[in-house]
Amino acid sequence: MEIRIGIANTPRELSFESAQSAADVTKTVEKALDSEVSFVTFTDVKGNTYIVPTAGITFIEVGTEESRRVGFVA
Fold first, then answer.
1. pTM of the predicted model, to two decimals?
2. Phi–psi pair at 43, nearest 5 degrees
3. CA separation for the pair 51, 43 (Å, rounded)
4. What burial class does residue 11 get, using C-beta atoms within 10 Å of its C-beta: 0-12 exposed, 13-18 middle, 19+ buried?
């Protein structure tokens, strides 16, 4: 699923594909914000790790788990 994260004072958002479910991503972010942790960590499908400061998060968009359709619709 695609995850987009807006970071304060940054003109572009961070966008990557994750193997985690939407519920797992939501739990991770909620736990980090509730416990006032300085950073939250995400890993994409290629194994890259992203460390995002929780104070700078402006929004997080979690895409759907539905795969994209390919082809023509009749």
1. 0.77
2. -125, 135
3. 9
4. exposed
Q: Which two tokens stand for residue 60?
A: 């997080």
pLDDT of residue 36: 85
Of 7 and 67, the structure prediction assigns the larger pLDDT to 7
Extended strands (E) in 1-74: 2-7, 14-17, 39-43, 49-53, 57-62
Tell me the C-alpha to C-alpha distance, in Å, between residue 8 and each of 13, 72, 73: 9, 40, 40
Retrieve residue 35's tokens. 């416990």
Q: What residue ranges do the domains of the chain occupy?
A: 2-62
- Name the helix (H) or strand (E) containing 72: none
| Secondary structure class of 23 (helix, strand, coil) | helix
Query: How many other CB atoms are found less than 10 A from the CB of residue 42?
Result: 19
